[in-house]
From TrEMBL:
Name of this chain's protein: Pilus assembly protein
Signal peptide range in chain numbering: 1-19
Annotated keywords: Signal
Keyword Glycoprotein: no
SUPFAM superfamilies, alphabetized: PapD-like
Residue ranges of coiled coil: none
Domain of life: Bacteria
């Protein structure tokens, strides 16, 4: 009897197991240096059904506290027909199950200062004759595949950092009062891929962070030993800080 109940529950669960797309955009940060103004971003679909993905982008700036703010687009141009700034093509992706799609990003025009763009990949439920060009039957069948269960289509974003022309790195490391300071005095972002903080034999490894131009990162004199890895364009180095 218990086996029959188990089989019945398993059959019921299988009815509600609905195929769904599951996209993966990989790295959350991409970088364009002064010599290369194009890149291809690959988006993977690890799910069991086709992913219909809309792509949007917007330029952002950061205030002194690090809060992100949108930059108004005076031309109101779409992501395919900009004459200046970051252009993305195509504006939508159709990615088969277990497959991948590619997005080409191109930065147009001069860039005297470093610029930042947020790119969003949003899986959507396609409608008849929208930009995905599905006919009524195909759109209806795709929507029905989701009707048997609750599915959440999650959007993912990444940031593209476009380095300025005549990129200059000038990273100052010094001791001030009761702290160590790493200060980006250059005109482009310094990447800290990771760093470690050790107290005796116990070490903690901390992940990715960025120092935008003018930003400082503080390490207190707290008895710990810090090993900080810095990536300045194509060049990498490490600094040791002792509390």
């Amino acid at each position: 009897m218990r086996n029959l109940v188990f089989l019945a529950l398993s059959a019921l669960a299988s009815l509600h197991a609905v195929a769904a797309p599951s996209i993966d955009v990989g790295s959350m940060f991409e970088y364009m240096d002064e010599k290369k103004r194009t890149l291809v971003k690959h988006v993977h679909n690890h799910g069991d059904s086709t992913a219909y993905v809309k792509v949007s982008l917007r330029e952002v700036v950061f205030d002194e506290s690090g809060r992100e703010q949108d930059v108004a687009d005076p031309d109101g141009a779409g992501i395919l027909d900009k004459k200046e700034g970051l252009l993305a093509s195509p504006s939508h992706l159709i990615i088969p199950a277990k497959g991948r799609g590619g997005l080409r990003l191109v930065h147009l025009g001069a860039s005297e200062r470093e610029r930042y763009y947020r790119v969003t990949f949003a899986p959507v439920m396609p409608k008849t004759l929208d930009e995905f060009k599905l006919d009524e039957n195909a759109a209806e069948q795709y929507q029905k595949s989701f009707s048997a269960g609750v599915n959440l289509l999650v959007a993912y974003g990444m940031v593209v950092i476009v380095r300025p022309e005549n990129t200059k790195f000038n990273t100052l490391v010094r001791k001030e009062d009761s702290q160590h300071v790493i200060w980006n005095q250059g005109n482009s972002t310094v990447i800290i891929p990771h760093y470690s903080a050790c107290l005796g034999e116990v070490c903690e490894n901390l992940g990715l962070s960025h120092l935008r131009p003018g930003q400082k990162k503080i390490f207190p004199l707290d008895g710990k030993k810090y090993k900080v890895f810095l990536k300045e364009g194509e060049h990498s180095r490490s600094v040791d800080l002792e509390g």
